[in-house]
Amino acid sequence: MASRIKTWLQPQQPLVILGYTSIWSGNAAWHPLVRNVLKRWLGEKRRAGSGEFNELAAPHELVLLDAGYQLEEIRYEYSQAWTLDDLLGNLYSTSFASPAVLGEKRADFEADLRTTLLDFDRNGVYEEQMTFYALLARVESK
Questions:
Q1: Share in percent of the chain as helix, strand, coil (round to 5)
Q2: Where are the domains of the chain?
Q3: pLDDT digits 0-9 by tens, 50-100
Q4: CB 113: neighbour CB atoms within 10 A?
Q5: If we measure between CA atoms, which residue out of 45, 30, 50, 34 comes closest to residue 102?
Q6: Half-sphere exposure at residue 44, Cβ-oriented, CA atoms within 13 angstroms
Q7: pTM more than 0.70
Q8: Longest alpha-carbon distance in the chain
Q9: How many angstroms separate the CA atoms of 93 and 91, rounded?
Q10: DSSP-derived 3-state class of residue 126
Q11: Integer Cα distance of 122 and 115 in angstroms
Q12: Nearest to 135 by CA among 18, 22, 14, 9
């Protein structure tokens, strides 16, 4: 894999990988509850559209370093407070819990998620610390 990466880019062009803390990688106290509801309705394996999400064989950083890239990372921390409706809207915008993926299970999934989260915290607002990042990879200058 590392040997093929440099063939993907034109000389001197950087590679940029963008990401953020998601329900799957976050550590807010309520995240495991959401993951459990997702698994109840969609199965144990994380979904990605009509298929399953494939875990990375190695972190992006290691693959890029092995390929001879210099890395720079930009991070931005953000405190997010979700209402139940906002959280559901966010989930419905993903490849793993879109209305198309949920299909006829959508109403039952939504009712389960609402009940689960309201049992956890009746105020209906769920806070998390999100990290957004950009990983910039450049070929090392010789």
A1: 40, 30, 30
A2: 2-139
A3: 666 566 666 778 888 888 888 999 999 999 999 999 999 999 999 889 999
A4: 22
A5: 50
A6: 0
A7: yes
A8: 59
A9: 5
A10: strand
A11: 10
A12: 18
